[in-house]
Amino acid sequence: MTSFTERTKATLRETLLDAAADLLPDRGHQGLRMADVAAKAGVSRQTVYNEFGSKAALTQAVALRVAAEFLDGIRCRFEDAESLLTGIRGAVVYTIEHARENRLIAAALGTEAGEDLLPLLTSRGEPILTAAADLAAGQYLALEPRLTPESAALLAETVVRLSLSHLVLPTHSASEAADSILAVLAPAIDQFVHNGVKREGQS
């Protein structure tokens, strides 16, 4: 495959994902039709099937692209952080604020059409949640090397799940949610760091 062909194929895929992402918030997964995605993108329905194979695969691809955008944003917050706690806080605030502004996620959390999109973030969203937790764990270790990989992974999974709970049940602002998550995690982080230092002293 030539580089021109690769670029053309990538552009087509992005065009189809853009079309699906624009339709999904109003129609949900069940109401989305491949023919409508094709019409919006200006291609044939067969072209959509050739690229993604099924409507489920197309919807999942849209969700994974949204997740990639979030992961890039989270990575930037950690890279600019002065400490582990400020990095976690910045990442949580960004995640919640960006999610509430994203049409697809807002629909999944708050509209009738989005009810069948919610599992992409929860029960069927394991690849997305795992990617977010893996990224966070790596950033935690970079900012606080006294953590063990196991404790970093546990902290990261906890932050991801708590952040998701604040998205599903939005009773606080993003800043308030981040502060409450840190209030719970700060003592645990101190304990993990202390245990890590203790083990180093014993070795």
TrEMBL record:
GO terms for molecular function: DNA-binding transcription factor activity; transcription cis-regulatory region binding. Pfam families: TetR_C_35, TetR_N. PROSITE patterns: HTH_TETR_2. Keywords: DNA-binding, Transcription, Transcription regulation. InterPro entries: AlkX_C, Homeodomain-like_sf, HTH-type_TetR-like_transc_reg, HTH_TetR. The keyword Isomerase does not apply. Residues 10-70 form the HTH tetR-type domain. The keyword Cell division does not apply. Residues 33-52 bind DNA. This is TetR family transcriptional regulator. The lineage of its organism: Bacteria, Bacillati, Actinomycetota, Actinomycetes, Pseudonocardiales.
